[in-house]
Every structure is written in structure tokens, then in C-alpha cells.
What we know:
The structure is a homodimer of 147-residue chains.
Chain A: H1 8-14, E1 22-23, E2 27-31, E3 41-45, H2 57-78, E4 82-87, E5 96-102, H3 123-130, H4 133-145
Antiparallel strand pairs in A: 1-2, 2-3, 3-5, 4-5
Helix pairs in contact in A: 2-4
Amino acid sequence: MTRVAGCELCALAAASPSPAVFENDRFAVILVDDAGYPGFARVIWKDHVRETSDLPDADRLLLNDAVWKLELAVREVMAPLKVNVASLGNVVPHLHWHVIPRYADDAHFPAPVWAQAVRETPAAVLARRKALLPQLADAITRRFASG
Amino acid sequence: MTRVAGCELCALAAASPSPAVFENDRFAVILVDDAGYPGFARVIWKDHVRETSDLPDADRLLLNDAVWKLELAVREVMAPLKVNVASLGNVVPHLHWHVIPRYADDAHFPAPVWAQAVRETPAAVLARRKALLPQLADAITRRFASG
């Protein structure tokens, strides 16, 4: 396992106790603490790899599968209007995938969450979505534990 | 094959002659005409499906494989500093994946391309990258034709 000093995702992958909702020896699934986007989740590859296409085939398929399972869990619990899925890593070039539930009333819709915000989501709506997070954690655990 | 009237990606998938660099009965690969991002490419699923997780398993694996092959072709020819890969579709909810070569001198780096631009890439640099597009088209054709 390659670890790079100063890489925040290497640090997260090695953190004890782990902040992950689910993890195995290859990847960790975390819920992102983003006030405007409850249900925002990530799959973080543990090894310090730059691109999905740097992975050997078996690992790449495992990562694709993890992102797909996470998308299913987010859809099941958060019931978004749309799911956004992305691997960017320009700031932290350590392989990770974002899975983001999107709603017509979120701060950026229909633009990507990285664009300029165009509105504030009502606090009550965000609170209602945030209250679903324990259920989302359960759904992730269930979907990943079943292999 | 579901076609939705007014969906621009349904129209693109059905266009004759096809603008695709490569296509089969399931998906099309196109080069995006974005002046600031030569080498920006997309995999467009032909059927009008909303999310990757709406696909049956065999199709999902085929799409994952297509995005991976496209990432490899873009890396091979465009030699980016980083690749960005994303499925958003908030504006056009017809399944498609972006593969975007990123460089330290591009208009948004290190932010995602959907953020506020922070610089202008020198015209000569963009021209040099644009000149690689025939080679990128060849690399895509080669990688997809080989199955």
C-alpha cells in the first residue's frame, strides 16, 4: 500500500478509528460532511493511485462496483432527483469518487455542485435530509456487506 | 430503444450521419467541441436512461468499460496532468459520461471545469492540443474496435 506524506486521503485511509461507514482492504466509503449536501458520499481508494485507469483490471472492476453500490444506496435512502458521480482529484490526486444526490432545490441545481451557488436550500429541507443519514449508513453497510 | 422527443442526446444518438468517433448499438463516443478543452470527450448511452444504476448489469459493465477505454485513449494522446470523469446530467437527464483532460494551465485548474474560470489558456497551447484531435480519434477507434 503506497502512502504519501501530506496526502489527506492517505491520512484518512489510515486513520484510526476509521471515519468510514464501510471499508475493506481496498477502499473506504465515507459520508461527506457538507452542510448543503446531506447524503454526499465518497468511495476512497486506499492505495495512493492517481487515476482509475492506473488500477489493475480486478481493482478497477471492484471500484466500479463500489461506486455503483454507493449510488444505489444513495438513491434508495435520499431519493434524489438526479445522482451526480465524479472522479476529479485535481486538488488531491488520490483516487476517489464522489456520489452526490441532487435536488431541484439544492444550492446549485441544475449546475454541478462546483459551480456558483444560485440559491439557499431551506434549512428545514436540509434538516429533513440530514435526518436520513443514519438510514443511509445502514443502507451502505447492508449493500457492501452482502458482497 | 427509448427515444424522448426534445432530448438532445436522443437526437444525437439517432443523428445521421452520426457525429460519433465510435459507436455500436449501445453507446456512442464523441469529441466535445469545447474551445477551452480540446480532448474533452463523452460516452453517450443511446437508450434514454437516467442513471448508470438504472442499467441492467451487462449494460452497466459495458458502459464502465467504455468510460475506462475512453480515459485510456485521452491519457495516451492528450497526456493530461489529471483526468476528470463525471456523470452529471442535471440539465439533460439522459445517461452520458464526461472524460476531460486537465492541465495546470487550463481555464479552471485545479477547480472542476464547471467552476468559475480563473485564467485564459494561451491560444498557442490550445492550438497545439487541438492539433492532437485526429490522433485522439484514431486512438479511440483503435481501443474500441479491439473489443
